[in-house]
Write a structure and sequence with these properties.
With about 350 residues, the protein is α+β, with helices and mostly antiparallel strands. It has nine helices and seven strands. Helix 1 (about 1-10) packs across helix 3 (about 35-75) and helix 4 packs antiparallel against helix 5. The N and C termini lie far apart (about 85 Å). It binds adenosine-5'-diphosphate (ADP) and magnesium ion.
Length: about 350
């Protein structure tokens, strides 16, 4: 009992200055009203006792409130709350309650974000190891078979070496794409924007791809628009975009044509690459830009794909403040398009 009163008063001493001021005020009033010292003394004594009782009450209230807050904070620290609705303080502390709730929500979403990041990181690492293992195992397999005697079999030896070689090419493509994507995602991709002639730029890339397309009997079509049309962008990075999109178009097209279309708008030039290939099923359309996502893994690997091409394309186009859009119908073909600033 005494201890409790002592700690209550001790707690209320935060308001000691206000308390003394109040006492002085009341004493002065008493002196002014009653001039006789003998009468005013007991009154002052009474006042002191009442004051101590009030101090005790204030202190008790204060300790209760602090305990309530301490308790909530400690429950948050121990992750005892599922949702912020469970956090309740006495009515007159509702402003504080709201602040605590917001802090709780913020901490919760920060933790969820970190967990998601952690999951993505492990997933990425898993994907990378898996993708590396496939070509390495193949190379190992072909080399072992050759060492075990196939090297003397003129019917297969060259074929096995070619297969092993193709896998080293795949491996090196994968490493290059991985380096690109890690540079981009860690923010180390340096962009260097300038104006350049889009017609000349596309024509030079197309001429590199003509032999590859002809080999598959695919027509590569590009009709330049307005001569001297300039667009604004990073030429090297955009070359990478075109190379990736053209490689895909050729890889995933068995016959027909690939067309690059330019459409001049007021402030932008809309660029589309249209093929008559195998197309992409609707349910995969918004996933093809994810790292390592392929509609048909076996086919992608067989044609030397890494599953990173479109992820790189998306990053580069977004760095140009633009957006890559895909439209496709299975069995009919796909169109990838994006805008560049004029
Ligand atoms: N022009 C296209 N036609 C059909 N499917 C495509 C085309 N471009 C991309 N895809 C699909 O999207 C997937 C992801 O493409 P990408 O990131 O370039 O990886 P990949 O290394 O497999 O080419 C491909 O595996 C393929 O399934
Ligand atoms: Mg690709």
């Amino acid at each position: 009992m005494w201890n409790e009163i002592k700690s209550n008063i001790f707690s209320a001493l935060v308001y000691f200055r206000e308390f003394i001021l109040f006492l002085v005020l009341v004493v002065v009033i008493i002196f002014l009203l009653i001039e006789k010292l003998s009468l005013s003394l007991p009154l002052i004594l009474l006042l002191l006792i009442v004051g101590i009782i009030i101090l005790n009450l204030i202190g008790r209230r204060r300790i209760k409130e602090i305990d309530e807050i301490k308790n909530i904070i400690s429950l948050i620290r121990q992750s005892k709350y599922q949702s912020s609705d469970e956090i309740v303080l006495t009515k007159h502390l509702s402003a504080l309650e709201n602040e605590i709730k917001e802090m709780f929500e913020k901490a919760k979403s920060d933790i969820e974000y970190l967990e998601r990041l952690q999951r993505m990181r492990s997933q990425f690492l898993g994907n990378v190891s898996h993708e590396l293992r496939t070509p390495i195992f193949s190379i190992q397999g072909y080399l072992e078979t050759l060492l075990n005697g196939a090297i003397d079999d003129s019917k297969v030896n060259k074929h096995f070496l070619q297969k092993a070689n193709q896998n080293t090419v795949n491996l090196s493509n994968l490493l290059n794409d991985l380096i690109d994507i890690s540079m981009i995602e860690s923010g180390e991709m340096r962009m260097s924007y300038r104006y350049f002639d889009i017609n000349i730029f596309i024509q030079s890339i197309i001429s590199e791809f003509v032999p590859m397309a002809e080999e598959k009997n695919i027509k590569l079509i590009f009709n330049p628009v307005k001569e001297g049309l300039q667009v604004f962008g990073d030429k090297d990075k955009l070359r990478q975009v075109f190379v990736n999109l053209l490689q895909n178009a050729i890889k995933y097209t068995d016959e027909g044509r690939i067309e690059i279309l330019l459409d001049e708008e007021k402030k932008f030039v809309n660029i589309s690459l249209k093929d008559t290939g195998i197309g992409i099923p609707e349910e995969d359309l918004n996933r093809v830009f994810e790292r390592f996502y392929r509609v048909d893994k076996a086919r992608s690997r067989a044609v030397g794909g890494t599953g990173l091409g479109l992820a790189i394309v998306k990053h580069i186009i977004e760095a140009h403040n633009s957006k890559i859009i895909v439209q496709s119908k299975q069995g009919e073909g796909s169109t990838f398009s994006f805008k560049l600033k004029k």
